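User: Hey, my collaborator sent me this sequence without any context and asked if I could get a structure. I don't really work with proteins. Can you help?
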Amino acid sequence: MKILLLLIIFVVCVTIGSSYAYALEYTYPTINQRLTEIPTYCAVESITDKIESSEMDEMLAKSELAVNAWREKLQNSEITNKEFWDLKFKKIGKNESVTDDCTITILFRDDPEFSGSLLSKTLGAFMRNSIYIYYENQESIYGDKWMDGILKTLIHEMGHTFGLGHYTTDDNDYNRKVATRDESPPSIMFAPAHINPDLRKITDIDVQKVRLIYGSYGFHAFSEQRPSEIIIENPISPLDPTYPFEFTEISKNNIKLFRHQDSLMTISGQINDVVFMSGHPVFLLITNPDLSTQVLKVKPTRDGFFETYLNFNYKSLPGKYSIEFAYIDKIDQSKNITFDVEQTDIPLPSKSENLNIIQVSNTADQFFDMGLYGDAIKNYKVVMKNVDKIQEPLHLNALSKIGLALIELKNYEKSLSYFEQVYEINPDYPNIQENLKTSKLLIETNGKVIIADSIIPLPGWIKSNAGWWINGQSTDQSLLDAFEYMQNKGLIGSYEFSNYSQSHIPNWLVDIVTWWFDGKLSDEEFLKTVDYLLKQGIIII
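Assistant: No problem. I've predicted the 3D structure and written it out in structure-token form, which is a compact way to encode the shape of the chain:
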């Protein structure tokens, strides 16, 4: 009770005069790719019967337009040595071989399935000195504008050949708006890609970033033979490739999606001591199978270690995902990670002589504790069918937990029948009197009245939501959903404040939720604190 009083005092103190502002933070990192000469981009005519020859000719023409677009932008930014920013183009016929003077080859493919590291809807990719353009995906994404999509994808992938990473911000809602609004994104490298290819353009930010990478000598910067006849006073030095991470890793390479069950994946890594600077976050750009993106901003420890989480449920998109790691505007592409998400069902265990009933019962208990009541019931029924005597503790536990689960699923009459079976077998079974009373009360009131000390514990998903919210991995809405669940169960009060038109969670609430998440507050103390904040109008659901 002392803790609760301290919390209330803390809440009142913080509420008085509290204010905050949110500043959008963007990241535009460089990758370790560098051109070491004036580049020649060679577009290779593909041998395929999946597109018309005229369409192939148009794709080759778009390749030349992409090269010209970058050349014009870069040379226009240079006053004296425009030739340092030259770009050359060459067409390679379908019966010709790629020549030694080709720095980067441009290849056209129907889809990326040949590569296990690429997302199935990938529009383009830069790998091993080659740009790949996937024209079937272009058509499925951009429709009638698919040829314009190819041009902008070429320009984007050429940015990667220079050493540009993806431009994005730490606000996922803002990123989605930028990708759909009727104006150009701030960069041709913006992720996610805009839905209208006509609005994707090379911007001044892109040009400045390329010039920052190569410095005063342009594409001669990393060449062993710079032009000796030209001397630049006080030249701007180029950016050497940087390797910011010792390692990056994930806890699972394959995520299986089950109905009503969340799956949590840990993402972690270690920043190299050479580049580590306290106070700088790690940016994670996660690309989903449909090419939508989400950005996570993770604060490393004092030792440079960082860790965060991704949550998946049955509604998550199945397919291949990718994670790109950036630190202080630097990316090491070798540390990027891909993983697969697979949709499946929880198999119902079948009766078998070798069936481990204790293990099935433990699995059912885990489902119950996580709030996955439907799957818990399936497993408890398997236990009931396979125990030898109904008096066995496993059988009684299964009956009782099914009754509790059915209350959660609002099937009150059926829950009563299970509690009655428990009572008939063992009238002294723990909590059976209270459970019977609660079920009957719920039937009489049609579930609208819950006694104060409800027999249903807080489901595991509520604490999971709180953990993700604390770490910035979910929005305020996920916490509001948990509070609304508590209201519906009668665990906290329902208060209306007509002066407020929208939901509100104060930013300092993270401290209180963290105390509860870490076990410093009991469920009862946490619920009383939330109820008080709701009653005072500090939290608005």
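In plain terms: The chain is about 35% helix and 15% strand. You can pass these tokens on to your collaborator as they are.
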